[in-house]
């Protein structure tokens, strides 16, 4: 088992190269649209429609680390029913858009969290749930085994404070993430990625 | 000559939906049969024993909630407070001791509900998961009204409890118990007669009485194999010696027996809470203990019956504000020990059924 | 089967959290004096198991004023010891829990944030009933 933060065999690298054959026409279309008058507006509308769809179907990975995972389970269960937000838990990172880091991560689990994140398909998001995932929380001082914040290994989009956060607080975090997704210029980002690669 | 196949090593976890946390099982398979299982632990090691040496006795109550088994925060607080009280010779008032019993038994129910829900969902029964969490939320509401927390409470204090029960809570709790007892029968109806459930659990993952004792497994795992040992009866703490309850013991030692024992324990917990609510005396809830308390030089070991088994804590004091050394005897750790013995010879599909049935919590295993 | 609805449609409906709920921390403003009730005794800073309260003050005697009162909300474990030890109930829990952010730095609540977080009325004190301090 590799212990460094190296992508193991089978996992994609940090930023997978876009498949040119598929994305290149989109990139060209984006470039053309952006340069004709009124084209930007069309592009933004298309993006808004796409983003609405993406934001309403965030599929999180079922990955619990510690106590916060119990509150995450409670959020999936009957009372709070996270499925209402279009969040259907997936057991494999390949199908997931979102990883909720629920609980404290040890130094031993950190490379595994990193690998799970790398195995997820772009675009991917991270929610850090609870004090421990955010910065080590109660385990910050006098401790040799807990990672001081999951953002040392993967980039976090939304931080949810609490120990543990109420399920409502987690849902609020997911709503925050939806807002962020809705604002993203997804097509332009993809086009820029293609142009960078070209 | 019999046909032989190569042995196959299969890695389960650390990220696996049914390991209930971050546990890695290295399963050696011969075809579909399990030859050996090696649990790889330490993915949630939070070094809580070391951290407690750097926190004062009072502050540590907040730490045992989280660092030990997180599903049973109140039972952790109870065993820790009992140990410090024995060390420092503090006697909590009567009312506080009853309140502690009520809360640790409520937490036992909540913990068993999480276990039943997640185990059932592993075996394919989603309804049970939703129902169990529905009832669990009601318990959490009861907790929240008194302690202010849902999962982590920091409610028990050395020498008592933090705050008194609010107006009307006792009646509310009684009403919940009346509601809850028929629900246990409902789970019973959903699972106990279910042929799929029976096929997956009855006779599966057997462990003998001798093996259970040899491995040090305790709690429901031990009692399902015929070890009639319950710390609440064997060495009563708090006010358990005044309570009437039975310790369910079965002889089969399979997954189904462990399930039945836990169901019966939920019913017994209801019975204990009812008695405690009935006998709840008035008066003080806390003896005066300074926030900067120092324990005299010495050591104390206290063990209690947590929902997972015999939970013990050993505190050594050198007379300072912080403990000199703390050792936690975690029931999940010993129960995990018995896993290898249970799994040998079963099929790979039984791994999750057997693993779920011993009800481990990884933060208890790793501490 | 279901006699009552279980699911709470969260952003539209809300649960009533109990008045002891350990939500975020706040320094409420005393309506009589117009400032918070903190007497700068450093007890909360000392008891905090996560060492996430940082207090600094200037001046002497009656003149003493808070210059810094930071709580690292991302490190806090919402245990309530600070609320318990505070002799003047200057620091309280508010039954408010929605504080997720895009930046971790925003979870460092300084004096202004803590005063703003306090509800005008009523204040959930967290503690009800006896118990020595
Ligand atoms: S933030 Fe609190 S509840 Fe969440 S994992 Fe850490 S200690 Fe547990
Ligand atoms: S609630 Fe506990 S951890 Fe948070 S600031 Fe107060 S004493 Fe510190
Ligand atoms: S304990 Fe209360 S009065 Fe003392 S410093 Fe803290 S907030 Fe201020």
From TrEMBL, chain A:
UniProt KW 4Fe-4S keyword: yes
Domain annotation NADH:ubiquinone oxidoreductase-like 20kDa subunit: ranges: 67-177
Chief location bin: membrane
InterPro entries linked to this entry: NADH_UbQ_OxRdtase-like_20kDa, NADH_UQ_OxRdtase_20Kd_su
Region (Disordered): 1-20
GO biological process: aerobic respiration; electron transport coupled proton transport
Keywords noted in UniProt: 4Fe-4S, Cell membrane, Iron, Iron-sulfur, Membrane, Metal-binding, NAD, Quinone, Translocase, Transport, Ubiquinone
EC number, UniProt record: 7.1.1.-
Membrane disposition: Peripheral membrane protein
Named cofactor requirement(s): [4Fe-4S] cluster
Superkingdom classification of source: Bacteria
Keyword Glycosyltransferase applies: no
GO cellular component: plasma membrane; respiratory chain complex I
Location within or outside the cell: Cell membrane
Alphabetized PANTHER family for the sequence: NADH DEHYDROGENASE, NADH-QUINONE OXIDOREDUCTASE SUBUNIT B 2
Described purpose of this protein according to its UniProt entry: NDH-1 shuttles electrons from NADH, via FMN and iron-sulfur (Fe-S) centers, to quinones in the respiratory chain. The immediate electron acceptor for the enzyme in this species is believed to be ubiquinone. Couples the redox reaction to proton translocation (for every two electrons transferred, four hydrogen ions are translocated across the cytoplasmic membrane), and thus conserves the redox energy in a proton gradient.
Assembly notes: NDH-1 is composed of 14 different subunits. Subunits NuoB, C, D, E, F, and G constitute the peripheral sector of the complex.
Protein name per Swiss-Prot or TrEMBL: NADH-quinone oxidoreductase subunit B
Native source organism of the sequence: Candidatus Segetimicrobium genomatis
Gene (UniProt): nuoB
From TrEMBL, chain B:
Alphabetic keyword roster: Cell membrane, Membrane, NAD, Oxidoreductase, Quinone, Translocase, Transport, Ubiquinone
Annotated localization: Cell membrane
Gene Ontology molecular function: any one: quinone binding
Tree of life domain: Bacteria
Catalytic activity: a quinone + NADH + 5 H(+)(in) = a quinol + NAD(+) + 4 H(+)(out)
InterPro entries, per the entry: NADH_Q_OxRdtase_suD, NDH1_su_D/H, NiFe-Hase_large
Record's keyword annotation contains Coiled coil: no
UniProt domain NADH-quinone oxidoreductase subunit D: residue ranges: 122-290, 292-367
Gene3D superfamilies: Cytochrome-c3 Hydrogenase, chain B (1.10.645.10)
One cellular component term from this protein's GO annotations in UniProt: plasma membrane
Membrane topology of this protein: Peripheral membrane protein
Main subcellular localisation: membrane
EC number, as in UniProt: 7.1.1.-
Function per UniProt: NDH-1 shuttles electrons from NADH, via FMN and iron-sulfur (Fe-S) centers, to quinones in the respiratory chain. The immediate electron acceptor for the enzyme in this species is believed to be ubiquinone. Couples the redox reaction to proton translocation (for every two electrons transferred, four hydrogen ions are translocated across the cytoplasmic membrane), and thus conserves the redox energy in a proton gradient.
Cross-referenced HAMAP family: NDH1_NuoD
UniProt subunit comment: NDH-1 is composed of 14 different subunits. Subunits NuoB, C, D, E, F, and G constitute the peripheral sector of the complex.
Similarity comment: family membership: Belongs to the complex I 49 kDa subunit family.
Protein name: NADH-quinone oxidoreductase subunit D
Organism: Candidatus Segetimicrobium genomatis
Designated gene of the protein: nuoD
From TrEMBL, chain C:
Statement: the UniProt record of this protein carries the keyword Cell membrane: yes
Keyword annotations of the record: 4Fe-4S, Cell membrane, Iron, Iron-sulfur, Membrane, Metal-binding, NAD, Quinone, Repeat, Translocase, Ubiquinone
One GO CC term, this protein: membrane
Family matches, as Pfam families: Fer4_7
Gene3D superfamilies xref list: 3.30.70.3270
Domain 4Fe-4S ferredoxin-type residues, every copy: 29-58, 67-96
GO molecular function, one term: quinone binding
PROSITE patterns: 4FE4S_FER_1, 4FE4S_FER_2
Top-level taxon: Bacteria
InterPro entries: 4Fe4S_Fe-S-bd (IPR017896), 4Fe4S_Fe_S_CS (IPR017900), NADH_quinone_OxRdtase_chainI (IPR010226)
Keyword Aminoacyl-tRNA synthetase: no
Cited PANTHER family: NADH DEHYDROGENASE UBIQUINONE IRON-SULFUR PROTEIN 8, MITOCHONDRIAL, NADH-QUINONE OXIDOREDUCTASE SUBUNIT I 2
The protein's name: NADH-quinone oxidoreductase subunit I
């Amino acid at each position: 088992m590799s212990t460094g933060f190296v992508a193991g065999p089978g996992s994609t690298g940090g930023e997978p190269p876009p498949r040119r054959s598929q994305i290149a026409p989109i990139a060209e279309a984006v470039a053309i649209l952006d340069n004709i008058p009124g084209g930007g507006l069309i592009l933004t509308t298309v993006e808004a429609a796409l983003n609405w769809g993406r934001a309403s179907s965030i599929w999180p990975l079922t990955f619990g680390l510690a106590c916060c995972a119990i509150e995450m389970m409670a959020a999936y269960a009957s009372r709070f029913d996270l499925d209402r937000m279009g969040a259907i838990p997936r057991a494999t990172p390949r199908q997931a858009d979102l990883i909720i880091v629920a609980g404290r991560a040890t130094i031993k689990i950190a490379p595994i969290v990193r690998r799970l994140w790398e195995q997820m398909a772009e675009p991917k998001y991270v929610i850090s749930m609870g004090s421990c995932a955010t910065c080590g929380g109660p385990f910050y001082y006098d401790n040799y085994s807990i990672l001081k914040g999951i953002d040392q290994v993967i980039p976090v989009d939304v931080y949810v404070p609490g120990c543990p956060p109420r399920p409502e607080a987690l849902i609020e975090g997911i709503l925050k993430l939806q807002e962020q997704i809705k604002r993203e210029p997804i097509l332009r980002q993809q086009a820029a990625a293609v142009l960078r690669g070209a | 000559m019999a046909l032989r196949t190569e042995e196959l090593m299969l890695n389960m976890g650390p990220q696996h939906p049914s390991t209930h946390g971050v546990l890695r099982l290295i399963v050696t398979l011969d075809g579909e049969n399990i030859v050996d299982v090696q649990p790889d632990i330490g993915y949630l090691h939070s070094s809580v024993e070391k951290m407690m040496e750097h926190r004062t006795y009072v502050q540590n109550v907040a730490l045992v909630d989280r660092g030990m088994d997180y599903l049973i925060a109140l039972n952790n607080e109870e065993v820790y407070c009992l140990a410090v009280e024995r060390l420092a010779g503090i006697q909590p008032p009567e009312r506080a001791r009853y309140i502690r019993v009520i809360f640790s038994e409520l937490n036992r129910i909540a913990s068993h509900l999480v276990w039943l829900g997640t185990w059932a969902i592993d075996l394919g029964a989603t309804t049970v998961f939703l129902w169990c969490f529905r009832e669990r939320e009601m318990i959490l509401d009861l907790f929240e009204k008194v302690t202010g927390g849902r999962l982590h409470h920091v409610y028990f204090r050395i020498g008592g409890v933090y705050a008194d029960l609010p107006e009307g809570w006792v009646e509310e709790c009684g009403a919940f118990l009346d509601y809850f007892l028929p629900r246990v029968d409902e789970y019973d109806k959903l699972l106990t007669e279910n042929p799929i459930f029976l096929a997956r659990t009855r006779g599966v993952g057997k462990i003998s009485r001798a093996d259970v004792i040899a491995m040090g497994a305790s709690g429901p795992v031990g009692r399902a194999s015929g070890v009639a040992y319950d710390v609440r009866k064997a060495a009563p703490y708090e006010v358990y010696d005044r309570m009437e309850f039975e310790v369910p013991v079965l002889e089969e030692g399979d997954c189904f027996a462990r399930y039945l024992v836990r169901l019966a324990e939920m019913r017994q917990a209801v019975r204990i809470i009812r008695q405690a609510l009935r006998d709840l005396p008035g008066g003080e809830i806390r003896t005066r203990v300074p926030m900067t308390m120092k324990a005299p030089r010495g050591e104390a070991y206290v063990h209690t019956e947590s929902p997972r088994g015999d939970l013990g804590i050993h505190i050594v004091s050198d007379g300072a504000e912080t403990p000199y050394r703390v050792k936690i005897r975690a029931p999940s750790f010993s129960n995990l020990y018995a896993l290898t013995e249970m799994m040998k010879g079963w099929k790979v599909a039984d791994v999750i059924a057997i693993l779920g049935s011993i009800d481990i919590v990884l933060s208890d295993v790793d501490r | 089967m279901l006699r009552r609805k279980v699911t709470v449609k969260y952003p539209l409906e809300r649960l009533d959290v109990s008045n002891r709920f350990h939500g975020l921390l706040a320094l409420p403003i005393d309506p009589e004096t117009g400032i918070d009730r903190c007497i700068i005794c450093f007890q909360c800073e000392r008891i905090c198991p996560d060492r996430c309260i940082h207090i600094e003050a200037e001046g002497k005697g009656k003149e003493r004023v808070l210059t810094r009162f930071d709580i690292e909300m991302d490190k806090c474990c919402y245990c309530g010891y600070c609320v318990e030890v505070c002799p003047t109930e200057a620091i309280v829990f508010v039954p408010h829990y929605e504080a997720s952010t895009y930046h971790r730095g925003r979870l460092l609540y300084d004096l202004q944030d803590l005063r703003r977080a306090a509800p005008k009325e009523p204040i959930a004190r967290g503690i009800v009933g006896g118990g020595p301090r």
